Amino acid sequence: MARPTAGDVLVETLIDWGVDTIFGIPGDGINGVIEALRTRQDRIRFIQVRHEEAAAFAACAYAKWTGKLGVCLATSGPGGIHLLNGLYDAKLDGQPVLAITGLQFHDLVHTFTQQDVELDKLFADVAAYNVRIMGPNHVENAVELACRTALGYRTVAHITIPVDMQSQPVDAATRSERNVPGHVSDVMAPPAQMPGEDQLARAAAILNAGKKTAILAGRGALGAREVLEAVAERLGAPVIKPLLGKGALPDDSPYSTGGIGLLGTLPSQEALEECDTLLIAGSAFPYIEYYPKPGQARVVQIDLDPQRIGLRTPIEAGLVGDAKKVLEALLPRLQHRDDRSFLARAQDGMKEWTALMVERGTRQDTPMKPQVVAHELDKLLRHDAIVATDSGTITTWAARHLTMRDGMMFSCSGNLASMACGLPYAIAAAVAYPDRQVVCFIGDGGLTMLIGELATCVKYNLNIKIVVIKNNALGQIKWEQMVFLGNPEYVCDLQPIDFATVARGFGVAGWSVDDPARCGEALREALAAPGPALVEAVVDPHEPPMPAKATLKQAAHLAEALARGTPARRKIALTVASDTVRELV
Q1: Please, what is the Cα angle at 34 between 70 and 111, to 5 degrees?
Q2: Burial classification of residue 223, based on how many CB atoms lie within 10 Å of its CB (0-12 exposed, 13-18 middle, 19 or more buried)
Q3: Which of 13, 160, 225, 416 matches a 20 to 30 Å C-alpha distance to 105?
Q4: Measured between alpha carbons, how far is 491 from 116 in angstroms, rounded to an integer?
């Protein structure tokens, strides 16, 4: 019987660690690993993508959707380089991802040979565990520790292995004397860190002393719905959800006030502006300008990572541990708050906000408003839907108009806020959950960056429904140039693409709609179609993603940008004026 190769040991170790899926592209720098995957395809599947960046995004999303280790594989040189953006997405959003790359022949590294990129050096910043394989007997130890590090610290690990070593047999005769066989283990001990009794008592005393308490529930609170709602009920507290925490609490919960930040709701912003105590559960929401002003509120923070405690705002009590478990330990110590006025104001505000969102989402004027597309899509989402979105104005429409029901899942590139993530995220969801409704809600700028992944959807007959908002512009940048800087819009217009026709060229069923009266029908047909389908929704390019509370400075900047020569400034001014008048009336 042939002795196992280094590639065999690598793949077997991944299987031992529960890895069932790898995203990537084959290449001559990883042929030994690919062969090991070929001979084990009944136990581990390889999803071939069209760009390595998509592989890394998909690995990050697979970790988000499943809680498992996400794995991506790329060849030497350019293949490995292409992984970086998706790996930084995983690093910044705290997801366990292992990247495996090829390296040139071990005795030609650093000699200007073809694709001579020392990927371990390149990945030094993104990967918490980062190793170059030094020989076939090094593989098992390194892969085991890479998996352990990625899962234990919820971060990125990287292994790069010279191509010649991948096919070399693992030979006991070449094992160093201190590398004792069988001394590694695939047993993973889950983190058990919990705050002590004194810390819980201090946190409870702070929260019990408050009169106007708000809760900021982020990605760390996903899966903690019941106890999060119980804490909110006990404290009479509105629950504010940063984007990655959108699924922490259903939007129809009486305690939810939706998102925060530029794409958030007015009740969420007002709750943070007025609260006297704040409980942060599993969030490192990066926009510090939306937190209570220092000295305004006493803050208790729960986070799995002690490094993130007190990172964004001054705190009085820090509780390190899993948000769900810590909330469960904290709940019995919290007193029921009889005064519900703070929560009641937030609930009244949400009724007004919801009515406003319905008004924006049911407009029948043309050009069609992007909010109409999101509103119509929301009515068709099932309770098991998984929604992936992208970065840009599309994120605002998703955050405000796609409502989370119990059982739904939602994600995007959070702290990295990268474009192009939406379709790979949806691919990972459809691979992980083939029987669930998977929707990719994406902008035209984000889709074109990795549009080749439509072929991946077809190759694996993935049940993905892609709704592309077509405004022929990099809308977020356009409005940032005008509203935040007072500059005229410049180089944000995009060359139009007929996405429905392009989709059909890939073998994806395609629809195009620009009439708000037909939007719901087109979406309904696409969602009912078997396999991958795409709806191109042509919308008003001048519709602004209005902040929940516009400032005078923002209004002045917009006026300045229009006066200084923004293209289509008359149409923009009319659109903004029309929106404002409608909402005032």
Answers
A1: 100
A2: middle
A3: 13
A4: 36
Query: Two tokens at 264?
Result: 């958030």
Say if CB 71 and CB 18 are below 8 A apart: no
For residue 585, name the pLDDT band (cuts at 50, 70, 90): very low
Cβ atoms within 10 Å of 580's Cβ, excluding its own: 13
Q: How confident is the model at residue 487 (pLDDT cuts 50, 70, 90)?
A: confident
Taking each continuous run of H as one helix and of E as one strand, the counts in the chain are 23, 17
Query: Quick one: tokens of 364?
Result: 């029948």
- Tokens describing residue 33: 């690993």
Q: Is 568 helix (H, G, I), strand (E, B) or coil?
A: coil
Report the alpha-carbon distance of residue 77 to residue 122 in Å, rounded: 10
Strand 386-389 versus strand 509-513 pairing type? unpaired
Length of the chain: 585
Question: Which run of H or of E encompasses 300?
Answer: strand 298-303
CA distance linking residue 236 with residue 251, whole number of Å: 17
Gap between the Cα atoms of 561 and 483, Å rounded: 8
Q: Does an H or E element contain 534, and which?
A: strand 533-538
Q: Which amino acid is at 289?
A: E
Which among 481, 467, 477 is positioned nearest to 392, based on CA atoms? 477
Q: Which residue has the tokens 């208790």?
A: 300
Place of tokens 């709806």: 535
CB 143 within 8 A of CB 15: no
Prediction pTM value: 0.94
Report in angstroms the alpha-carbon separations of 532 from 174, 206, 439, 456.
50, 51, 10, 10
DSSP run (H or E) holding 280: strand 277-281
Q: What's the token pair of residue 185?
A: 């283990």
CB contact at 8 A, 517 and 364: yes
CA atoms of 583 and 585, how far apart (whole Å): 5
CA dist., res. 227 & res. 224, Å (int): 6
pLDDT band at 484 (very low <50, low <70, confident <90, very high): confident
Compute the average pLDDT of residues 185-208: 87
Q: Give the mean pLDDT of 174-192.
A: 70
Average pLDDT over residues 259-286: 96
Q: Report the C-alpha gap between 331 and 454 in whole angstroms.
A: 47
Concatenated DSSP letters of 151-204: HHHTSEEEEEEEHHHHTSB--GGGS-TTS-TT------PPP-----HHHHHHHH
Could you read off the pLDDT of 242-272 as tens digits, one per residue?
Answer: 999 999 999 999 999 999 998 999 999 999 9
What percent of the chain has pLDDT above 90? 82
Q: Please tell me the distance from the alpha carbon of residue 236 to that of residue 208, in angstroms, as a whole number.
A: 11
Mean pLDDT value across residues 305-314: 93
